[in-house]
Amino acid sequence: MDFIIQNILNALQWGSFYALIALGYTLVYGVLRLINFAHGDIFMVGAYISFFVAGFLLKPALGLSPAMTFVITVPLTMALTSIVGVTLERIAYRPLRHKGAHRLYVVITALMCGLILEYSNLAVLGASRLKFPELLEKQIWNLGGITLTNLKVLVIVTAIVVFLFLQWVVTKTRIGMAMRGISYDKFAIPLMGIPIDTIIVFTFILGSAFAGLAGLLFAMSYPVLEPFMGMLIGWKAFIAAVVGGIGDIKGAFVGGFLLGFIEVGVVTVFPSTYRDLFAFTILLLILWMKPTGLFGMPQSTKI
Amino acid sequence: MRRFLTTLLMTTVAMMLAIPAMAADTIKIGFNIPLTGDIPEVGEGSKNAAEMYLADINGAGGLDVGGKKYKLEFIYMDNESKAESAVNAALKLIEQEEVVAIIGPNSSKQAVPAGGTCNDNRVPMISPWSTNPDTTKDRPWVFRAAFLDPFQGPVVADFAAKKFGAKTAAVLFDISNDYSKGLAEIFKSSWEAKGLGPVVAFESHGTKDQDFSAQLTTIIATKPDFIFIPDNYNQVALIVQQARDLGYKGPFMGSDAWGTPDLIKLCGEQCYGQYFSTHYAAAGAVGATKVFIDRYMEKYGAEPADYAALTWDSIGLLVEGIKNAGKVDSNPREMRQAIRDGLSAIKSFDGITGSSKFDEQGDPIKCAVIVKISDEGKFVFEESVCP
After folding, report:
1. ipTM (interface pTM)
2. Of B56, B164, B253, B346, which shows the fewest CB atoms inside 10 Å?
């Protein structure tokens, strides 16, 4: 029994990262119908930004405690990562959109932007791994055979809070209404006096900021950073978002955790080589039965 | 104008003729090393050692073969630490650069496939660091400078049984890495052959994995006396930390892939006090080994890891092979054949990683070292095990 509960906790932590990244995919897709393939790499950039921010704040000259550093690193990382996300939108996606390019070209541009981020990182920082400093003093709690760290709890709670926050923004606020409006009809919305570009920038800010947060938490949980760390996890999170029903906040959240549970579940029973085989077969079956994903609706308002 | 053109043409022809003539005075050697990818530190260290060797030889006017001095030329090719790229890098070195011999790849994951390529193309290859038997097995053109896993596996098992008084063992290995998988299997059979107790958990993961919590939960539930991790240093850092987070308090045991300075950078205090088997220990070295370490430290500001020392020895072996060949042929095919024959004529070799004898497969028989990671993050000599 302990064994099962322990693995449920493992899956919750791993799924949290998928969920956090999948939320970013789904937000942008929901508004723009654009698969932002650079999102996984924005997550990677977020992890690196947090590394440099934390490294800077931990300098003895500033005299900050690690916990205080963490408190300052969170908003700073989110802000800086969202600048990267918005820059991508500004220099890569917006010009294409204004020229009326087909969505396919924008998706290819997004793929290229991701590769540019990866390889510019490789060129500037080299292939050597970086070690993320310890920000929170680790506490390991042992509850009758089940071990839990404060970091694990923080990751899971953050994923849930971010989900609730985004759900609230999209369904309950005026700006969320505008986002849904753009998703519904991109041509009629400007006629209503809604600044479409501003709303899109806001969407990118939201998505990238939470990718940055995910990057920070990921770097704290798995403190070895490398330029390609965002690629695989980004693709998998995208698949999770599709299975959940891309464009739907709830879908991304559920899809992320579902993938986390399947992966950890398969590895506990079978050799690790079967993990991706089983995980994606199950996801394929879900899509086969429900092509729009668990929560997706065909041809209606996304997000 | 016409005269000018004639002169130009003649100069061009003369230059074209001169280039092969010049090339005959140099011996081209290729390096198939991981400068990027999962283990960039390994490629860097190998390249550093090679540059040092090159400066020595060429500084002395070149390599003396059959009474004539030849300059060496080293060509470094990045294999991105991937199996398929290692094959491509080998082919590029053979076909485009026309090297007469190849040093590397280091890791068995790349050395096993690249060894096949070199053997098929009849190019001598020396892997400095590969310990998997398949690298040289039934490949007359492939040699190595490191000991083999069938030797390393029992060394680790014996040491753990003695040091930790262990009865049960658990293994976590990278299933997509020939080195890790091969060593894990050899360790398992040699542990079970000891009859102390079973290998209670034998779990695997993939190369790009970052989360090992599911495997570690399974391992910890079986309560092993120690965990053997024959993995690359970047994964070791994550595995050790996650095992501790899941409440594991026992010791870890590692293999020669642990031995990089980056292990300490990435793993930090959590790896202190653990043991691993390796090819040599920098601390407490004497003689030629110490001279090498001091020079390397002076030049690059860091202690050379085992793969740097083994690369040095591999070049030494190759130089020995070229000297045995006794002549330099401008035809790369002839030269490759001569070097291969020269290499297989080597019966014993005194290198900076110890002296070795060669068996009929071209594999060295040499001693292994067990190293402890001290509380200052240094690799300290614990004991030496000889076959």
Report:
1. 0.87
2. B56
